[in-house]
Every structure is written in C-alpha cells, then in structure tokens.
Amino acid sequence: MQTFADTLGQVFRAIAANKLRSFLTMFGIAWGVGSLLVLVGLGEGFRSGQHRQLATFGNDVVLMFNGTIPAVANQHTGMRPYQLTPGDVEAIRALPEVRGVTGLLNRNDLYEVSAYANTSGQVLGVEPNFAEIRFVPVAEGRFINAADVADHRRVVVLGLKSGQLLFPGRPKLGETITINDVIFTVVGSVGTISRGNNDGDNQKVYIPVTTMHDLFAMKGENVPHDALTSIQWQPATHGDTTAALPAVHRVIAQRHGFDPAMKDAFQEWDTITEEHMIGAIFDAMDVFLGGVGIVTLALGAVGIINIMLVSVTERTREIGVLKAIGATRRSILSQFFWEGLLLTGFSGVIGIVVSGGGMWVLQKLLTGKIPGFDPPRLVPWSAALAMASLTLCGVVAGLYPASKAAELDPIEALRRE
After folding, report:
1. In terms of residue numbers, what domain contains 233?
2. 303 and 178 part of one domain
3. Lowest mean pLDDT, pick from 15-19, 161-165, 363-367, 382-386
4. What's residue 381's pLDDT?
5. Rounded distance between C-alpha atoms, residue 29 and residue 34, angstroms
6. Domain assignment present for 109
7. What angle do CA 338, 340, 345 make, to 5 degrees?
8. Could you say which of 261, 289, 307 is where a domain stops?
9. Which residues are 54's β-sheet partners?
10. Whose C-alpha in 28, 158, 234, 373 is 20 to 30 A from the C-alpha of 149?
C-alpha cells in the first residue's frame, strides 16, 4: 500500500524532472499573486491616506463661512453680505439635528513675539469645544477652557511650530508672549497636525474667542464687533447631513433675512460630502486596480492549467504502468492532486511573502512622508482570494485529465504517446 510519504516523493521527483517548466510555472503563479496584492494594496493605501488626511482636519465637520445674499436667486448682482455671530452659534446649538458647534474668528495679520524670537502664525479665537470638533491634539498643558472665555483671559495655546520658533529648545508653559504688543500667558501647546511641507496648521496659535473680539475684532464697514470668520458644526447622525444641513440653513436664513432656498447665499465646505466623494473615487479605483490584478492572476491560472494538462498528457504512459502494477485510481489521483496543490500553494506563499515584504519596506520608508497617500499595504482578503482561486485551478487542472487517464485500460494507456 502506498503511503503519503511515497506519494510526496513521487510528486517531488515529477517536479524535479522538469525543473525549468516547474520554475516558470511557479514564477507565473507568484507573479500573479504578488501583482494582485500590490495593486489592491495600492488602492487601499490611497484610500487610507485620504481618510487620514481628512481625520487630521476633523471628522464629520461642516464649515460655514460669511456669505453674500443675492437679490435674485441664481444671480450674482446686487449681493448683500452678512456676517456670522455668536448668536448664530447658539441658535445652531439648539438644533436637535446638530451634536456639536463652535464659532471661530481668525486673523492672519497679527505678530507674536517672545523673549527669544518672533513669528506671524495665524491667530485663532476659539471656544473650548474647538479641540473636540477639529483635530487639535494638546501635547503640553491644556487647551482654552470655559473660564478663559467667560473671563476674557489673555491666555494662549501655541501650535507645534509656533512654540518651536518662539521658544527654541526652551520650556513654554507659564511663559509670556505678546500678540501685537498685548501680553498673553502660554497655558498649553499642541502636537503635530500638518504633514509634509504643509505646516500652516502647526503655526497657528489659539486664544479665547471673547479675548479675540475684545482685542482683534474683524475690521470692515458694517461688520458687527462680535463677527466670526466661520461656524463649524457636526451633524447628530455620524456621516450624514441629510437632516442637519437644511435645519442649519433655515436658522441662518431666518436670522439674516433671506430665503433658505437661495443656495448661493451659503459658503460652506462639507468634509462629510468630501469624504463620501473620495470614497466613491477610491471604490472605483479599487475595482479598476483589482480588475487589473485579477487579469494578471488569471494569466497565472491559465499557465498552471496548461502546465498540469501537459504534465498529465506526457505521463499517460506512466499512469498505465502504475495501473499495470496494481496502483489504484485513488492513489493516481492523489499524486496529481498533491502536485497541483504544492505547485500552486508554495508559489502563492512566495508571492504573498515577497509582495508583503516589499509593501512592509515601503510602509517603513514612506509612511507620513507623502500628504494624502499611504504606502500600499497587504489586504488579507486579496491574499485569500488569490490563493484560493489559483489552488483550485491547479488542483482541478491536475485531477480532471488524470481522472480521464486513470479510467483508461492499462494497455491502452501504455500505447499512448
């Protein structure tokens, strides 16, 4: 009775007897598997990079800016400007469709000076919940709190680069700086926000919005003293502004005297819609790259099918000899089953290991280096798909012709060329 070890021995001898053919077959399989994994991983890298880039801005955020009201809908003549105010913030905060809202006033024309250096980073007057709605990771000390806003305190939180410029290699907490000659006490500093060469967010400094209104209010004709630059809010339902957006529009339109149906009167940036759009783009990219990978994989499958068919055809006489000396149909099929399984399985593992190793190296070298892009990463489902499909092709391609040959009369099989 033939043992499993005997069967494997015959399989390895058969593979070794055709070294070049076996190598080319295995190379084609490994290449097909590796190509599929890299292409799918590339699409996922783009997707995760864009998602991470938006996450550094803030999740589920809609930004509303000061706008202009057209005299007639869809016409840009005779437009009347309006300014957002803290009253608008409170009105939006009362909406059940909104879970978080914050007001913001920022200026780009202010100068910060310490005892060691000076800089001109953007100054933001914020509310305490700004760090909850936007991505503002506090690294030292604390962020602006409710008491700072209520008491109009002159305190400041420094962005990463602003802190490094104003206090190079020195402690910051408890020190003072001046903003346009007004003294502020440093109560906190923020970790890194920007990536790559775009470090504008790292140069920001944050002060209470009430203090900002007192000292650095927005300038302009007919501009209220408490005017804001923007209102930033989050819908009550994560990732869905279907109910919240019309409710916010109704409140703003009512408070500023225009029809909410005038879409041109609203100046907004919706990160939720942006993320959905990016997701749709990368879904299409995944389909395209995955399709290219599957075509490459299919070529490898055709190669293994062809090789197994040729291998069985060439060894029909061998099958006849095995049957003549008493080999069973099951033992003959077992040999070709294990040959197809070993060829495809081992080659597939090589393809996974090599492509996964290459992607791991790219992760180490490029992660965080290219804004909006993550290096390709191994996607488990694509590896499983590649292995399963190629293994199935290899086994079926070996078993089907082998079963036909095993059904032949031994004399007939020995007469085959």
Report:
1. 71-261
2. no
3. 15-19
4. 77
5. 9
6. yes
7. 90
8. 261
9. none
10. 234
Q: Which positions ≥6 away from 351 have C-beta within 8 Å?
A: 29, 30, 31, 32, 33, 34, 37, 386
One domain, residues 403 and 333: yes
How many helices (DSSP H) and strands (DSSP E) are in the chain?
Answer: 13, 14
On whether residue 61 sits in a domain, the answer given is no
Which domain-ending residue is among 218, 235, 261? Answer: 261
Total number of domains in the chain? 2
The answer as to whether 269 is a domain residue is: no
* pLDDT tens digit sequence for 126-138: 999 998 898 889 9
Strands (E) across 258-372 are located at 267-270
Structure-block tokens of residue 28: 């084609």
More confident residue, 370 or 215: 215
- How confident is residue 60, by pLDDT bands cut at 50, 70 and 90? confident
Q: Which two tokens stand for residue 294?
A: 């599957």
Give me the torsion for CA of 58, 62, 68, 74, rounded to 10°.
130
Q: Please choose, from the candidates 239, 218, 235, the residue with its C-alpha nearest in 3D space to the C-alpha of residue 107.
A: 218
Evaluate whether residue 266 is within a structural domain. no
> Does pTM surpass 0.85?
no
